[in-house]
Amino acid sequence: MKKKIVILGSTSSIGRSLLNIIKKDKKNFKIELLTANSNYKNLISQAIKFKVKNIIITDPDSFKKTKIICRNKKINIFQNFESLKRILPKKVDYVMSAISGIGGLLPTYKIINRTKLIAIANKEAIVCGWPLIKSELKKNKTSFIPVDSEHFSIFSLIENKETNDIEKIYITASGGPFLNLAKNKFKKIKLSDALKHPNWRMGKKITIDSATLMNKVFEVIEAKNIFDIDYKNISILTHPKSYVHAIIKFKNGLTKFLIHEPDMKIPIYNSLYHKTGKSFKNNTLNFNTLNNLNLKKVEENKFPLVKLLNKLPKNSSLFETVLITVNDYLVYKFLDKKINFQKLNKLIHKISNLKEFQKFKKIKPKSVDQINNLRNYVHLKIESLGI
Ligand code: NDP
Ligand code: MG
After folding, report:
1. 15: Cβ below 6 Å to ligand 1?
2. Strands (E), 67-124
3. Where are the CATH 1.10.1740 domain residues in the chain?
4. 26 C-alpha to center of ligand 1: Å?
5. Which CATH class is domain 3-146?
6. Architecture of domain 313-387
7. Fewer C-beta neighbours within 10 Å, C or N terminus of the chain?
8. pLDDT (tens digit, 9 = 90+) per residue, 195-210?
9. How far is the CA of 10 from the centre of ligand 2 (A)?
10. Dist. CA 13–CA 203, nearest whole Å
11. Which atom from ligand 1 is nearest to the alpha carbon of 39?
12. Is the CB of 340 under 6 A from ligand 1?
């Protein structure tokens, strides 16, 4: 029987990688739904190529254009996620959640009761809304696989093991383009320098987060949420080749590493073919890299954002939404060349430390609306500061 699947954010780099995998094994999959925000041309061509009957396109202008272009095609076009029950009357087998930003939380949350398994790449949803996602997964007996490479590695290393057996988790960071740059040269960093990631090809926003190491701050929060491990038991190591993704030191004296080439296709493929035993082709072991792992502690004076981890509350709170929003807002200012790299780092610290945001450290997220409203509030607050 064909596996029924959905891709939220099918025009994303993750979504496109997944479709490339499915392309080679079309006979075993039926795609029930694809979604995008504004990239209607790509979405329509994906729908035609993979014979998909349902698409969601959220941007109003793009929705109108899609309606016109597809008027003679047998494709149902929706503008929001309200009709998921109608589109998916029965649970599908697999959903990939690959929308970027907090905007991905609502669709991710809403689709959990429409699928047997959900693979989540959208890290903002896990960082901001984990308590909501976790209880929805449990309520609907839906399985979950993390797709972010470090978390997929941890997931693979501890499958069928109690997290109580873990002493420490190390997640690796390539260190981005500035790992070996002298601190006194940071003031000269240009946008084009920050966009040159040494190992991974990703969207611009996450590439900047990798250059500041904010991406690792989010990944530590993700790991703490998904695996229910205290912050004090999770550390970051820089590792320029991005070959090792996670290291777990168990209490029984054993330590396990997970290695693979820095290509998101590997965790995506393994989430899709989980427990099927299907082989991944062209997978060679790179001994040169293995002999040169170069794992080191993060230099916090060069990458000050990792210090934010010392100020996070032990339990999930609304403050994580503040942090994601502040970072998002300022990264786009940096991408628009309105602030420089050092100011980006300074302002993230300064604004997230504002007194009025501290109270959110004590509030547990109760609904997706509450998280979205807080994001709007934080946006307005930063705008009012004239940034
Ligand atoms: P991209 O920037 O390539 O794509 C984003 C996707 O989300 C597009 O399909 C976009 O549609 C859609 N989208 C954006 N905003 C909205 C919205 N408000 N409503 C509905 N759809 C929306 O993303 P990436 O593939 O780089 O990343 C996806 C997620 O995976 C992110 O959360 C990222 O942090 C995470 N991730 C990515 C990795 C990577 O290697 N890229 C690695 C690990 C995690 P449209 O094309 O129409 O704009
Ligand atoms: Mg990652």
Report:
1. yes
2. 76-78, 94-97, 117-120
3. 313-387
4. 24
5. alpha beta
6. Orthogonal Bundle (1.10)
7. N
8. 998 887 788 899 999 9
9. 19
10. 7
11. 47
12. no
Q: Closest ligand 1 atom to the C-alpha of 125?
A: 32
Q: Please give the residue that has the higher pLDDT: either 282 or 281.
A: 281
Our answer on whether the CB atom of 372 is closer than 6 Å to any ligand 1 atom is no
User: What's the rounded Cα separation, in Å, for the pair 117 and 135?
Assistant: 14
Q: Where are the beta strands (DSSP E) in the chain?
A: 3-8, 29-36, 54-57, 76-78, 94-97, 117-120, 143-146, 166-173, 234-238, 244-250, 255-259, 296-297
Q: Tell whether ligand 1 has an atom less than 6 A from the beta carbon of residue 175.
A: no
pTM greater than 0.90? yes
* Ligand 2 midpoint to CA 87 (Å): 31
Tokens of residue 115, six digits:
């699928």
Q: Which ligand is nearest to the CA of 14?
A: 1
Question: Which residue spans of the chain are classified as CATH 3.40.50.720?
Answer: 3-146
